[in-house]
Amino acid sequence: MTIDSLRTFGANVDEGLERCMGMEDFYLEMIELGLSDERFENLGPILESGNAEEAFETVHALKGVIGNLALTPLYETICEITEHLRAKESVDYKALYDRLIEQRKQILELK
Q1: 111 — pLDDT class (breaks 50, 70, 90)
Q2: Buried b (16+ CB within 10 A) or exposed e, 54-84
């Protein structure tokens, strides 16, 4: 993954780099770490279990991590899940989770 490929994906690279003191290598390393967060894998089963409180806590933590990395498309999906859970709305969480995991995969596959 490169700064240019992240930009093409829709990440706010300038914001992310600013948080990483302009150090591209550090920013890319932080993205790798953020995307490997185990809460991505944990969220699916938690959503399936119907435990809205635990799902909210999990996705809200991801929101902080991904928001700091300025991975905008991923962040927007996380925000959508967070707000539905906050409002205790009955939506297709599986579809939202699948979109989240697909976006994460797309970022990981960037060249």
Answers
A1: confident
A2: ebbebbbebbebbbebbbbbbbebbeebbeb
The pLDDT of 46-62, averaged and rounded, is 95
Please provide the average confidence, as pLDDT, over all residues in the chain.
95
How many angstroms separate the CA atoms of 103 and 13, rounded? 16
Give CA–CA dist 18/110, Å, rounded.
21
Domains and CATH numbers, the chain: 3-108 (1.20.120)
Amino acid symbol at 54: E
Cβ–Cβ contacts within 10 Å for residue 43, how many? Answer: 24
- Please tell me the distance from the alpha carbon of residue 68 to that of residue 98, in angstroms, as a whole number: 22
Q: Which amino acid is at 71?
A: L
Nearest to 44 by CA among 107, 104, 96, 110: 96
Residues contacting residue 48 through CB under 8 Å, at least 6 positions apart = 94
Question: What is the arithmetic mean of pLDDT over 63-89?
Answer: 95
